[in-house]
Design brief:
heterodimer; A: mainly alpha; 2 domains; 0% strand; B: mainly alpha; two-stranded antiparallel ribbon; 20 helices; globular
Chain lengths: 158, 509
């Protein structure tokens, strides 16, 4: 895990430097006593993070990095990337499909990606779960879930 | 602020006269057991997933449901631990040491029955101690000023960092990143927007719920998806669930002792139910007349950890309710739920919201009774959940995470934020960065920053105010204990890490 620790350490140091620089832009703003103003706490955190990240890199260079106990399954990672893509597409399209149409499609596709093969189970789950969720949110919690704009334009209601 | 029996009696009246409140506790306990049963979903994940279901309801209903999830989740973990040797929650890891051997002997039902009774006994003792001890501790907390609150926040963070992983440095880094996240948005003391980069969505900071769902819900879903197909499908078959009275009576002392230990350990910020369970198991084994039988499948080995981890639930609630400091990750989520419902946790919450606090006590006790009834009557059905196809429920949980992130403020930004944080948290676990310190930092960050700055302003910049033994002895005690915990944990980790490095080099050679 040496390489990972070195990369993470450097990334965190850059992040902390960015936090420090950005804090400088509002150090003199606000109504508080300047020294303990809005920049005070982020600066302390940034300094601490630079020190800790530096230590992480030094430890890794001295070959004292912790060993990885678990390894990412490459095939699993491919499946995960596909599942995330399905999730992103689902949510990007939610305004057009609405929750009630988009969610069963999302669930069906996702279960297929995950390797589920039973048609009956896939169809039943992908219909029942969104319907139950929608009923709970709509009637019990009185929270509206996204509705289809396309259906609204076509029929005046979704 | 003494314990008020009249208010407590009134709180029971409130709970028992409103079937909706009992219904929410029942839903919470049942959902908690289900979540706990499913390997890969913890009580923290359960609470994170169910917070959105509290949004449109009165705060008490939502909070009681989440307490039910906590209680049920800790118990539910033992079912999968006993049946398939995979603890549903980390706190059930000690239970499987004797639970699984019993299941192998065909006595899985007996083991689950004992686990249910011990959970009930431990949970009730923990809840009672919480009920009677909390008002006194809250009174103590009312004396706190900015210096004490800052020291308390530091103490809470140090404790969680000290116990949350194998590397102290990585724990501190995770906490620092969490603290940095809390500085995004309007500065509460000067109203200056920080790190918003002109984005309107960031003005009020990163919303707690999407971050929480990302850290504990989405990351777990990602992990389950990546690992899918690696674990084998299992079959479970349960015989008699109801334990014999003689068997329960024989473990009464172990249950009582473990419950007291569990409550005490749970009340120390940063510890939690898993440490309570292992400590109680070790103590039960040490004080047993037949320690050699532990690990071979005996009921004492189940009674001790289960009584302790459920008692720790009550223990962990004490600092959360009285001082606003979460005892562990689940109570951090509950604390977040309080803030979502516009409560400011801490001693003032305790003083000004007796109509919420006392019903929470009563609800917590009632949740134990519901756990006993639901656990004993439905264990057979919960056991079947263990065999549920993960491809189905993982997809549904993914959907729940997305909708939960969205429902807080109907924002797609929050959905993508949740996905992003979930991805980061997923990789963090692989590279041995703990995620719990981030959650605690999100809760304690504002408390730490505001009180640090206030204390320094009041003392005209004198940083020694935090270690002033005359004017601020409590702050000094918190800081000394926090430092001692960090140093002792550093020494222990260093020792185990050196051993790990030596082993690694030997393997390479």
């Amino acid at each position: 895990m040496r390489k990972a620790d070195i990369i993470t350490g450097i990334f965190l140091m850059v992040l902390a430097a960015g936090v420090m620089i950005e804090a400088g832009t509002y150090a003199h703003r606000g109504v508080q006593i300047e020294y303990f103003g809005p920049a005070f706490f982020p600066r302390i955190l940034a300094i601490a993070l630079i020190l800790c990240a530096g230590l992480l890199v030094i430890n890794a260079l001295r070959k004292q990095a912790l060993r990885r106990v678990e390894f990412i399954d490459r095939r699993g990672l491919g499946r995960l990337a596909l599942a995330i893509a399905v999730g992103i597409v689902y949510w990007l399209a939610i305004d057009y499909t609405g929750f009630l149409i988009g969610s069963p499609i999302f669930l069906f596709v996702l279960m297929t990606v995950l390797g589920a093969r039973s048609w009956l189970q896939r169809i039943a789950t992908s219909l029942a779960a969104p319907l139950a969720l929608w009923a709970i949110f709509e009637y019990f919690l009185v929270i509206s879930l996204p509705e289809s704009q396309v259906l609204y334009l076509l029929f005046g209601e979704s | 602020m003494e314990f008020d029996f009249q208010v407590f009696a009134h709180a029971w009246g409130t709970i028992l006269s409103q079937p909706m409140l009992i219904f929410f506790i029942f839903v919470g306990v049942t959902a908690g057991i289900m979540v706990g049963c499913l390997p890969g979903l913890t009580a923290t994940t359960g609470c994170a997933l169910l917070i959105p279901f509290t949004f449109g309801r009165p705060p008490l209903e939502g909070l009681l449901m989440l307490i039910g999830v906590f209680v049920g989740g800790i118990y539910g973990g033992s079912i999968s631990g006993i049946l398939i040797r995979t603890p549903g929650t980390p706190s059930a890891a000690a239970t499987l040491l004797d639970g699984f051997p019993l299941a192998q002997k065909g006595q899985g039902g007996r083991a689950i029955g004992m686990s249910t009774v011990a959970s009930f006994a431990g949970g009730t003792i923990g809840a009672l101690i919480m009920t009677f001890a909390s008002p006194t501790i809250a009174t103590f907390g009312l004396r706190f000023g900015p210096a004490e609150f800052f020291a308390l926040a530091l103490f809470g963070l140090s404790m969680i960092v000290a116990v949350s992983g194998v590397s102290l440095l990585k724990g501190i880094i995770a906490a620092l990143v969490g603290l940095m996240i809390t500085t995004i948005g309007y500065d509460p003391l000067s109203a200056v927007p920080r790190y918003t980069f002109g984005q309107m969505q960031l003005l009020s900071g990163l919303e707690f719920i999407p971050v929480l769902i990302g850290l504990f819900g989405i990351s777990q879903v990602f992990r389950n998806i990546e690992k899918m197909g690696i674990s084998e499908q299992v079959k479970t078959d349960l015989t008699r669930i109801l334990p014999k009275f003689r068997e329960i009576w024989a473990t009464k002392v172990i249950m009582l002792k473990s419950a007291l230990m569990g409550t005490f350990i749970g009340s120390i910020p940063g510890t939690g139910c898993d440490i309570a369970a292992f400590s109680a198991y070790a103590e039960a084994k040490r004080s047993s007349k037949h320690p050699e039988k532990f690990g071979t499948g005996i009921l004492e080995g189940i009674a001790a950890p289960e009584a302790a981890n459920n008692a720790a639930v009550g223990g962990a609630m004490i600092p959360m309710l009285t001082l606003g400091i979460p005892g562990d990750a689940v109570t951090a989520v509950l604390l977040g739920a309080l803030t979502v419902h516009n409560f400011q946790p801490g001693p003032i919450f305790f003083r000004e919201n007796l109509d919420i606090v006392y019903p929470l006590f009563a609800g917590m006790i009632l949740a134990q009774a519901i756990l006993l009834v639901v656990g004993l009557s439905c264990a057979r059905y919960f056991a079947r959940l263990v065999t549920l196809d993960p491809r189905m429920f993982t997809a549904v949980i993914f959907l729940l995470c997305i909708i939960g992130s969205y429902a807080m403020r109907f924002s797609s930004f929050d959905v993508f934020l949740s996905l992003g944080i979930g991805a980061v948290a997923y990789f963090m676990e692989y590279y041995r960065f703990p995620t719990s310190p981030i959650l605690l930092a999100l809760i304690l960050g504002p408390l730490a920053e505001q009180n640090l700055r206030r204390a320094l302003q009041i003392s005209h910049g004198n940083a020694l105010v935090f270690i002033d033994p005359v004017n601020h002895p409590i702050a000094l005690i918190f800081i000394v204990v926090a430092m001692a915990a960090l140093v002792s944990m550093y020494l222990r980790m260093r020792k185990s890490r050196l051993a790990e490095l030596v082993r690694e080099r030997e393997t390479q050679n």
